[in-house]
Amino acid sequence: MGFLLGLVPGLPSWAWRWIGIGLVLVAAVAFGWVKRGEHDQPKYDALQLAYSTFKADVEAKGVIAQREADKRVAAEKSAKEKADAENAKSIAALHNDVARMRRERDSARRSLVPAAASQASSPDRACFDRTKLESALRSYRDAVRGLVDEGSDAVIDLNTAKAWAQH
């Protein structure tokens, strides 16, 4: 110990005792930390293996779920495209039928206002102007036909949506 006393001159011997005790404590803590690490390493390795297994399992299940979702989305997209095509076909058929019936009706009847009675004393004495009334009735008929067409299209769209939802 004389050698150590010579290194730091003027340090009392009781201080060297505390320094020695401190070094022993530091060595003991370091030794315990190293040994604890040796005991904890198998636990850490087991936990790391469990985590790796869990992670791989979750990734595999995620890939499977994504494939199933992609298949379902593709099937639903195909069903939607089919329903849209059927819907467009139904609407076109309805419009063609309605146009044909309207042409037949309009060609059979030239005027919306009935002809003046043959035994009327003066057709000019009627309560209305025939050309203005005819124009107003045609305008009204066209507006009503537009509403009816819109309602018919909505019914076809609704039926298509109900049929698509049941698939």
Mean pLDDT over the residues? 83
Biggest sheet features: none
Q: What is the 3D shape?
A: rod-shaped
Q: What class, by secondary structure content?
A: mainly alpha
- How many strand elements? 0
Rg result:
48 Å
Q: State the low-pLDDT regions, or none.
A: none
Portion in helices: over 70%
**How many DSSP H or I helices?**
3
Distance between the termini: 94 Å
What pattern of helices and strands is seen along the backbone?
HHH
Percent of residues in β-strands? under 5%
Provide an overview of this structure:
The protein contains three helices and no strands. It has 167 residues and is mainly α. α2 (13-108) crosses α3 (130-165). It is rod-shaped and about 150 Å long.
Outline:
The protein has 167 residues and is an all-alpha fold.
What keyword list fits this structure?
about 0% strand; single chain; about 85% helix; about 170 residues; rod-shaped; mainly alpha
